[in-house]
Amino acid sequence: MKIQEAKYVMSNSDYLKCPEPDIPEYAFIGRSNVGKSSLINMLVDKKSLAKTSQQPGKTQLINHFIINQAWYLVDLPGYGYAKVSKAEREKWETMISDYLYNRENLVCTFVLVDIRHSALATDLEFMSALGEAGIPFHIIFTKADKLKAYQIANQVEAYKLKLAEIWEEIPPLFVTSSEKNEGRDPILDTIEAYNESFSKKA
Questions:
Q1: Sign of the CA dihedral 170, 30, 79, 72?
Q2: Who's near 99: CB < 8 A, 6+ residues apart?
Q3: Distances (CA, A) of 72 to 1, 12, 19, 82
Q4: For the chain, what are the domain ranges?
Q5: How many other C-beta atoms are found inside a 10 Å radius of the C-beta of residue 193?
Q6: Using CA atoms, how far apart are residues 177 and 168, in angstroms rounded to an integer?
Q7: Can you give the pLDDT at residue 202?
Q8: Does the pTM of the predicted model rise above 0.90?
Q9: What is the CB neighbour count within 10 angstroms for residue 142?
Q10: How far from each other are the two terminal CA atoms of the chain, in whole angstroms?
């Protein structure tokens, strides 16, 4: 897939106020500071479409971007660590779950995890909740440039073994580096295939 156009549409805290659900939509989410904004910018080939920050918890709303006038990319707030109050964190969690469980044109959710870490309980719990709700998701490993090739292979294999304890079928996995522009094409090809299926159903 060639990205010809990527535009910001809107931000809000209520899934009912999101754009009309008439084209396919893909959500990106992960723990705070996982490199989500950098990955989104890499995918759409724009340096500052999604705002990057050294401070975790920068994304606080449901952010919609329209790509090629054909599909929505949605940047969701991170889960896990962020310097916010418990009340604020609970508000985010409700906003995210309401969106994920009710957005009718959401085709797939991409869950980002830092490849440098072993499987974390917060990530596994979030994925389990998606699975139990029947929400399709794929896993994107970020920051692969921080490891050597054999370390990447070991981390991915260890993650698969951990997932196999929970899942009969392991979700699709992507290994990416925003720094080196790696993993972009497989993700975009996957989205393109989903878009074709969506249009056939419409």
A1: negative
A2: 15, 18, 27, 62, 74, 76, 106
A3: 14, 15, 9, 26
A4: 6-201
A5: 11
A6: 28
A7: 61
A8: yes
A9: 24
A10: 21
Cα gap 152→14, rounded to integer Å: 38
How much of the chain exceeds pLDDT 70, in percent? Answer: 93
Q: Which helix (H) or strand (E) holds 174?
A: strand 173-175
Structure token digits, residue 100: 């994920």
**CA 151, CA 109: separation in Å to the nearest integer?**
26
Q: In the structure, how many helices (H) and strands (E) does the chain have?
A: 5, 7
Band (32; pLDDT cuts 50, 70, 90): confident
- Residues 102-124 pLDDT 10s: 999 999 999 999 999 999 999 99
From the list 158, 190, 150, the residue with the least C-alpha distance to 172 is: 190
What digits encode the pLDDT tens for the residues 50-81?
765 444 445 678 999 999 999 999 999 887 65
Q: CATH assignment of 6-201?
A: 3.40.50.300
Amino acid at 105: N
